[in-house]
Design a protein that fits this description.
Layout lengths: L4 E4 L1 H5 L8 H12 L3 E4 L9 H6 L6 E3 L4 E3 L9 E2 L4 H9 L6 E7 L4 E3 L34 E6 L4 H11 L4 E5 L6 E6 L4 H11 L7 E5 L5 H6 L2 E4 L13 E2 L8 H10 L1
Parallel strand pairs: 1-2, 1-11, 11-12, 12-13
Antiparallel strand pairs: 3-4, 4-5, 6-7, 6-8, 8-10, 9-10
Length: 270
């Protein structure tokens, strides 16, 4: 088979429910790379929350963060690096609507920093932001919002995160891209209109002199819909949300808890 570009979501897809990559998956992906295929991480996670996985897998390809708002090669200068930013006015409006959105926190995400509301500190897991403790230097204040963020991250107390995402999309007159995170957390990620993993991959493939016909993608959540539609073969995980499944070409036989990505790639290429 012709060498492929393989786009992998992290949460609910490549990662176990505990947020790990198993040794079996690491070894399988290394063998896949040795066969000449290229692995690309495409995640809603911010850069700082995905870098250690990139290092674990010993990748050298570009990485996609913030659901497509950042395309870059970690720890290197790359002429092809792209940033698609969200107008900061939306972050201010999120703050005004925090109670309506039942927000535990609202965070403005940038490549190397973040600011977040701290009214419900007991509901915030510092590991979501790659820190041991949430400190006052990261507290969201209107006067600190001086530049456009890559994305807005929000954890909500709403019982149905999918319904809330749709209500928010209507509230903003579908002028934003509001998606849910994979896994059990009630987290919504917001990017600029038209920004998603598929648009990022289209740009990335162009820089690699490749096309969508060379792309295989794996995902599990609403924010993977466009990516799976765009790829030549789009895989929904066995544990994928019902929102994603109709948009997939295939479904893995195993879940993220069972090395579903690695087992599927092993069957395809090894």
């Amino acid at each position: 088979m012709k060498h492929k570009v393989i786009a992998l979501d992290l949460d609910g897809t490549l990662l176990t429910p505990n947020g790990d990559i198993t040794d079996y998956t690491k070894k399988t992906l290394q063998r896949i790379r040795q066969e000449g295929h290229q692995i690309v991480i495409a995640t809603g996670r911010p850069y700082r929350m995905a870098l250690h996985y990139y290092r674990e897998l010993q990748l050298d390809t570009p990485m996609i963060n913030f659901n497509g708002s950042l395309i870059h090669i970690p720890e290197k200068k790359w002429a092809g690096e792209r940033h698609y930013l969200l107008d900061k006015k939306y972050l201010l409006e999120f703050l005004e609507q925090a109670e309506t959105f039942e927000a535990d926190f609202i965070a403005g995400e940038y490549k190397h920093k973040f600011f977040l509301t701290q009214d419900h500190l007991d509901s915030i897991d510092p590991q979501l932001f790659g820190v041991e403790k949430i400190g006052p230097e990261t507290e969201m204040k209107p006067e600190r919002i001086t530049s456009d963020p890559h994305s807005i991250l929000m954890q909500t107390r709403a019982k149905d995160k999918y319904q809330l995402a749709e209500e928010m999309n209507r509230y903003f007159d579908y002028g934003l891209e509001i998606n849910t995170w994979g896994g059990p957390l009630n987290i919504l990620e917001t990017c600029g209109k038209g920004v998603n993993k598929a648009t990022a991959l289209a740009y990335l493939l162009e820089t690699m002199n490749r096309t969508a016909a060379d792309l295989i993608a794996f995902g599990d959540e609403h924010n993977d819909v466009e990516m799976l539609q765009f790829a030549q073969i789009g895989y929904a995980m066995k544990n994928a949300s019902n929102t994603l499944i109709p948009h997939a070409d295939r479904r893995t036989s195993f879940s993220n808890q069972e090395d579903g990505v690695a087992r599927e790639l092993e069957a395809l290429f090894l």
